[in-house]
């Protein structure tokens, strides 16, 4: 049946490997700025200061890594699930070239200090136009291929990809509306409290529709593929999908608890955030039950543990997130290092694990080979897992300490117990611990990149010599 | 019927769009048209060209990644920073710069808290003021002149009023001057509440001969006061505390007045025992509380020339 279809793998390969490159650069910057936190002498003005590098780190990973892999793996999943080759392969290749040029321009412009200074929407207006063009190119190929599909029923992953395409378009365009003052400088169209509300409606959903829905699309596709087990419940998938897509957009205001934003918006945002636990855990439960009585696959199939740990971190993330939204918790941990601890569990745990395993699967499929080394993939898994746990846990402990020090009042005379500086000095050991965890994670990701590159290199070599598929040279 | 939805991509996309728009409209679009999202305090003024240039530097260099600009209505927070933030303070903020992380302290009430001189010293080398600080140095901003033409385009984009003279004056200012000017505007639209006196005039220092208080005062001094008055207390940004001069007059001053100077800070032309202050001393009252301030008075008095 699928023999007849010749799929378009070139854009998949291009985006997968571009993402790997930008991801490597951006996590190294992440490691560097984590050192700047406890060694301010490492700030080299004007370009290499924390304030500018942080933007490059976050945008590099969100756009350079995550979006590239979303393009790559969505193009793979869409073609496979529709049994139809990409309708406009040339458009996808043009998209790939523009994408890489845009990432270079983005990195340079942020280092130059050209920023709208809204989190996750830093890029200045000319680059915003570039991002929109790239996204439209993506949307055209995805929709055209789905419309011309050879399989009548659309599988769950396609729902999540469609939702991603639509939601990101709406979010990105609205939040980036700006008044240009020059080619590299603009001012937000919105002001003050209203601007804050628009930004966090966007900011929270950028997380929702870049780091959640497309990653769920991968999870629902690659977990059954890697394990050979069908998704446990189709009905649960339907309920989880619609409730997630509906509710996500209501919740952004939990980022603005106790700010001057009108109280009712905060309260509705917090309430809907609590409801979000249900659809998130719908997918978690679906993942666990898919394993059913086959938990031995954690041991026998090297990809399974990535997906299961990935969805576990997603589950923890979606319990922790709503908890943080509650006023009583927010007043303690908001603005502290707890929050980067939370964010990095999502990105380093859920996203990096799921994307990593999806890449191993996809690369070996499209290069018609086995992965270079399963042993290295296992090393990658453990380094990434341990690195992330050290990072997140040290930041949670620190966050609670900071929050407690900031609000501590001396009982005898009602004065504040600690100056701000005392709380800063308390941070240093934990910030060093984070760098240590981050370094382990970086090494894990380097092993991952090496494993992928060697798989590609070997496949190309054997294709050149005798045209037969390569086989695994690594461990079991 | 429901099953056909997953066979019709266009219909599916439309339903997804509606689902996405529901929350968007209720939480983001509709509030935009309500008065409560666009309040403006009576004495809030648009930024001057210099202040706006400073705000642009604040954006360029990502200051908002480490500093917030919203004081939450929580007891300890109001004590630490000042009056909690009001919605009407931000009408001219495009974009808002509330931030999301306090690697450094909140800056919503920093305007007028320190002198310009303090800010220059601090930006040049934050560790000269706070030894444990991890803030990068921003003295290099002084090497970058402002561009009046660029400033004009920016003022026009925002529709803020400006004069030609104001723009020409920018030519001999640097990015650092602009940033300091911006710092001094933060929170200026909110009236500072008059301070309740913490002691009665004529109160005596209860810890005057207390050696533990002396040690405690020394610690507090080194942590908080040395940055401006010098490690040896011989003065730097703030005056010498070891000589016989108090507020530009060579004559003794009461312990109660020293307490009030520390607790309330000074404002320009404010009178203390018939001397006129020039302003610049920040207020530490809510921060330290009575006991720590008396300890500090004990320590400072021990430094004075006899």
Biggest β-sheet of chain A, characterized?
2 strands, antiparallel
The general outline of chain B is elongated
Strand residues, percent of chain A: under 5%
Q: What top-tier CATH class of the domain at 1-189 in chain A fits best?
A: Mainly Alpha
* Uncertain residue segments of chain B: none
- Identify the CATH architecture of the domain at 1-189 in chain A: Up-down Bundle
Judging by the overall fold, what is the CATH architecture of the largest domain in chain B? Orthogonal Bundle
CATH class wording of the largest domain in chain B = Mainly Alpha
Q: Give me the side-by-side strand order of the main sheet of chain B.
A: 1-2
In helices, the fraction of residues of chain A equals over 70%
Distance between the termini of chain A: 32 Å
> First CA to last CA of chain B: what distance?
95 Å
Order of helices and strands of chain B: HHHHHHHHHEEHEEH
Structural class of chain A: mainly alpha
With helices defined by DSSP (H or I, 4 residues minimum), what is the helix count of chain A?
16
pLDDT averaged over residues of chain A? 95
The succession of helices and strands of chain A, N to C, reads: HHHHHEEHHHHHHHHHHH
CATH-defined fold name of the largest domain in chain B: Cytochrome Bc1 Complex, Chain D, domain 2
SSE topology sketch:
The complex is a heterodimer of chains A (476) and B (306).
Chain A: H1 10-36, H2 50-82, H3 89-111, H4 125-147, H5 156-175, E1 178-182, E2 185-188, H6 192-210, H7 213-227, H8 234-247, H9 263-275, H10 277-291, H11 297-300, H12 304-325, H13 327-333, H14 338-366, H15 374-407, H16 420-465
Antiparallel strand pairs in A: 1-2
Helix pairs in contact in A: 1-2, 1-3, 1-16, 2-3, 2-4, 2-7, 2-14, 3-4, 4-5, 5-6, 5-7, 5-8, 7-10, 7-14, 8-10, 9-12, 10-12, 12-14, 14-15, 14-16, 15-16
Chain B: H1 9-32, H2 49-60, H3 75-81, H4 116-124, H5 126-129, H6 148-158, H7 164-170, H8 175-185, H9 211-229, E1 245-246, E2 249-250, H10 255-264, E3 271-272, E4 275-276, H11 285-303
Antiparallel strand pairs in B: 1-2, 3-4
Helix pairs in contact in B: 2-6, 2-8, 4-8, 6-7, 9-11, 10-11
